[in-house]
Design brief:
The chain is an all-alpha fold. It contains 20 helices and no strands.
């Protein structure tokens, strides 16, 4: 049966998100993709926001359908049974992944939880109260690990598919192996990295940052705008308003918005990677390298809490690639840790080889980053968030089964 014009508009809107690093489309672009005039769109939707709402409803309905099918299956025993079908579904619907990442992360989490509850998906009821507050922090952190691991490796797969065009038989083996990684981790836990050694490394990481510089106030204002409007919504005027200063005053520091963001963001990240470079010298094994890496990032974000918001959007920037100057900055930062061995063997993912060390490092980086953003939003203390870094590290090495065995 032929799709209605309204359905074709929603389909076309989602088509923009099938490419990684996409966050915005205009109604003119959408009309061209559908093959109708811009005015014709308003016969079916009152605004762009109404289109985005329809997209959101379709995505939630389709995901809930996957969850409910698993819940009703005869062999369903545990939330982990949902992993494989969920990974297959998202891998086959790249547009949903792109759309979800384009949303404000904290609001997207709340809306997703409420949408699943309203559609009868009961896994969220163990984590959230009806008012959106958290019931079970341990379960929340475990699900955070699952979601971030899914996103990191699905995004890596998508970027490779965009260049290699080998999307015909890769989903199933990829999904099986990613499920295995989430359930079992890297499988390289260091027996010597016990609670005593962790406390020792925690102190080393904390002491290294005792005299670090305070967060730049312009960067703090930039991050506040990013948190509210997303990266596309950043303007010099909005940053100036956060600082209660004239827009012209900011131009005495920077010649344009790009230079300002470039200088502020890479200034923060370079400082972080300098700490990583020093702290990793204390590691005695691959496992300790991973733990120090994650703990240092956690300690840094506690002191500079605005950095995760900008870093998150930087990772899904809309620009096609990076400038030569930005590449130099990335190469400098990666050069500080490129000789560090984090694992003896990176995970295999079947036909799609996303198993380069850059992806693994991105995984280690993303876990404390998202923990800081979402944990703060839920009111968790600094001590709770830093303790959660240790839990996330255990899941990296042992998978989510480590919590089941400890229960």
């Amino acid at each position: 049966m032929a799709l209605s014009t309204k359905e074709r508009i929603v389909d076309a809107a989602f088509s923009f998100y099938r490419k990684s690093q996409f966050m915005e489309f205009s109604l003119s672009q959408l009309a061209k993709a559908v093959g109708i005039t811009k005015a014709a769109i308003f016969k079916h939707f009152s605004s762009k926001e109404a289109i985005l709402q329809a997209m959101q409803e379709r995505m939630y309905n389709d995901i809930a359908e996957v969850f409910i099918a698993v819940q009703k299956s005869p062999g369903f025993k545990h939330e982990r049974d949902m992993l494989l079908p969920l990974i297959v579904f998202v891998a086959e619907h790249r547009e949903y992944l792109g759309y979800f990442l384009s949303c404000q992360p904290l609001e997207a989490e709340r809306q997703f939880a409420l949408a699943m509850h309203d559609r009868g998906v009961n896994i969220v009821d163990r984590m959230y109260n009806s008012n959106g507050s958290l019931l079970n922090p341990e379960l929340y952190f475990r699900n955070m690990f699952i979601v971030i691991t899914l996103l990191v490796f699905l995004l890596a797969r998508d970027k490779i598919l965009e260049h290699n065009y080998v999307d015909m038989f890769a989903v199933e083996p990829f999904a099986v192996m990613l499920t295995q990684l989430i359930n079992k981790g890297l499988g390289e836990a260091d027996p010597a990295l016990d609670s005593g050694r962790m406390k020792e490394l925690n102190s080393l990481c904390r002491e290294a940052m005792a005299h670090m510089k305070s967060e730049d106030r312009i960067f703090t204002a930039l991050a506040a705008v990013v948190a509210e409007k997303g990266l596309p919504g950043v303007t010099v005027e909005r940053i100036a308003n956060k600082l209660n200063m004239a827009k012209s005053s900011l131009y005495s520091y920077f010649s344009n918005k790009h230079e300002m963001m470039h200088s502020l963001v890479f200034g923060e990240l370079k400082q972080l990677f300098a700490f990583l470079h020093e702290n990793l010298k204390h590691a005695r094994s691959c496992g300790e390298n991973v733990y120090i890496f994650m703990r240092t990032i956690g300690e840094f974000f506690v002191r500079h809490p605005s950095v995760p918001y900008v870093s998150r959007w930087l990772g899904i920037n809309t620009t096609e690639g990076t400038t030569d100057e930005e590449k130099k900055h990335f190469e400098f930062m990666y050069g500080l840790i490129k000789d560090v061995q984090f694992t003896h063997k990176v995970p295999e993912f079947g036909y799609i080889h996303v198993n380069d060390i850059h992806t693994i490092i991105g995984w280690f980086f993303s876990l404390p980053l998202v923990l800081q953003m979402h944990g703060r939003a839920h009111g968790y203390s600094t001590d709770t968030l830093l303790d959660a870094v240790s839990s996330l590290y255990q899941m990296v090495e042992n998978g989510i089964g480590v919590l089941d065995s400890a229960a």
